[in-house]
What we know:
The structure is a homotetramer of 199-residue chains.
Chain A: H1 10-32, H2 35-42, H3 46-53, H4 56-77, H5 85-102, H6 104-113, H7 118-142, H8 149-171, H9 177-192
Chain B binds a DNA duplex (21 and 21 nucleotides) through helix 3.
Amino acid sequence: MGGQSKRLPRAIREQQMLDAAIDVFAKHGYHGASMNAIAAEAEISKPMLYLYYGSKDELFAACIRRESTRFLDALTGAADPTLTPREQLEHGIRVFLGFVNTNRKAWRVLYRQALYQNEFAELVLSSRDRAVELTALILRSSSRDERSNDQYRLMATVLIGAGEAVADLIADGTAQTEDAVTLLTDLAWRGLAGRKPVH
Amino acid sequence: MGGQSKRLPRAIREQQMLDAAIDVFAKHGYHGASMNAIAAEAEISKPMLYLYYGSKDELFAACIRRESTRFLDALTGAADPTLTPREQLEHGIRVFLGFVNTNRKAWRVLYRQALYQNEFAELVLSSRDRAVELTALILRSSSRDERSNDQYRLMATVLIGAGEAVADLIADGTAQTEDAVTLLTDLAWRGLAGRKPVH
Amino acid sequence: MGGQSKRLPRAIREQQMLDAAIDVFAKHGYHGASMNAIAAEAEISKPMLYLYYGSKDELFAACIRRESTRFLDALTGAADPTLTPREQLEHGIRVFLGFVNTNRKAWRVLYRQALYQNEFAELVLSSRDRAVELTALILRSSSRDERSNDQYRLMATVLIGAGEAVADLIADGTAQTEDAVTLLTDLAWRGLAGRKPVH
Amino acid sequence: MGGQSKRLPRAIREQQMLDAAIDVFAKHGYHGASMNAIAAEAEISKPMLYLYYGSKDELFAACIRRESTRFLDALTGAADPTLTPREQLEHGIRVFLGFVNTNRKAWRVLYRQALYQNEFAELVLSSRDRAVELTALILRSSSRDERSNDQYRLMATVLIGAGEAVADLIADGTAQTEDAVTLLTDLAWRGLAGRKPVH
DNA sequence: GATGAATGAGGATTCATTCAT
DNA sequence: AATGAATGAATCCTCATTCAT
């Protein structure tokens, strides 16, 4: 008790707070997480939270932004033009599921709290849309067919939906990452990426 | 204000209340929905809600139960042994997406609120599990391969995840049901249901 | 369930209700006893309670009145001019404690709930005053001194206070009636009933 | 409205709150006292009450504890070995009744509310038991007889019961402290403390 | 820069009480 | 004569948020 918190530079404080916030949000959900609990977890006083983030909403938004960015960066960084299309697909999926696996809390906050908290869905959806866009691109480049962008986007959405379902299993510890990678890659490659429907 | 609906028999009031509750839960989420708002929507007084359902939790649970049941009944009723496997798959998917399309609020409450509200997840998951089981059965009967039950279940989970992603698009009005039926059926048939990976 | 309660004549119904009310009041206290619980205990519907007694307050008052009367009747009936003063005293005390012993619930409601429930204290006090008056009379007739009525009344109050303390022990089952009779009689006889203070 | 008392150190606020709480509890009883009313009386906001005491129950318990302690301290401080037994008895009684006289509200809360509020009786009884113990000791040392501890305890209970009845009169302003002291001392000395029953 | 002290606003829940049948 | 259906009004409690130091 008393004066634990030493004058830290702003940047570090911010991260500390976000870490704590994500922790508590992941555990109790948006509504269940009280500013009190977050301040306690961060070992600072409540007014500090307000000084840095202004409101609970903004704090939550900041969490979402930080994690979305980290997430997208991971995915973007995974692109590797030297691979074959199928390898690219597999690599992308592996990076995605790997990220979820090592950032379970973030995943829960982002995709299982924010997404269905009316006021924040948009925030997540915007970066999810970028993920869809990215995936659509990969699908197109892996595909032998010619389809409309909308078609590819719908496919990407579906694939990402499947990915999220699997991600949930992984975040819960119910499924193994590698099994899931194989399954999803196969699904994407054969089901979506293109062979002509019949012949 | 308005109707003041008076002295209805218990059974009718119950449905009225659940309708109102689902409405408000769908719009504001579990926490955001106040008993006040639900009572107002149902055009009854708060004590009635408590008289009939005892607590907010139990009211929410009652919503989940009613809609889960309706949902499963729809899916179960869709089974039709006279169809070919692929037709069965397609029909199942169409019924599923059709249900979501005409029960958007219920869908949101069930799969987008309850599922990620810690205390209620289990309730939804138990009926989701039955859906997974059902789907796994269809997949097995549509499949030419021999796989383990676990394999089929994982596939079913993935397919349902994809289905939910699509369902969200439909619930939002972003996608057309028929397009989605085609895409999903194709995905399931080719990506999962099993032709041997070409070689 | 359903129609247990047959058309009973008013007088019987009234007693039935009071019995139930005293039961519930004794167990849960005035505030803790809900009209619901009382109606349930009496195996009638709530509106009946209101039909007969008008309000919770009046129902409680009715309980107090009935039991006060029974209580005073018992005490009054105990007077027996053929006994010696000391025997009278002892007999009075025995009747009092005996009554408490066989009417524990009533005792609790009257002297442990009503007395300290602001709105009802008066009701109890008025009949308690009559008990004090009665006791004062006995004390005067047992006394060799000459004292003012006020003195006798104060003595009676003290004696009754002691009696109530003992009554509590009896109502709780902590003390035996006969032991208490001996002690109290002795106390009253020697401590109050008269010998000159010093000599 | 009014003082708006601001930013007091914790210790002072605590007492302020307890003072207000005792006031309101004494006037309306446990159930009749709303947290609203207590907050208003203390001229603070409701959340402060909860911040400091957590719940109505705990607030009530805190009142009981503070007053019990003050009470027992007063009694304990009254012991004075230089006095004769009878003087000790008289002094003890005077201190007791004097305390009640100057702490009428506390007396009401402790012995007239808490004692008959099922959930709190125990709390009061434990300190009342200590008072009984103390009194029993004084009685024994004042007594010329040899009796069992149980006997002395029963006597003490009776004496305290009588004392409480008198205390009520004093708290109501119906009796004078000095008159009561004389009467009770006499009662205790002659009726209980022991000269052998004449023969 | 940092915080202990304080509160407005609102939420779940429970009653005593009354209609309409 | 008797009751199932219905509610206004309060109560306890919590939380995001802000001062004053």
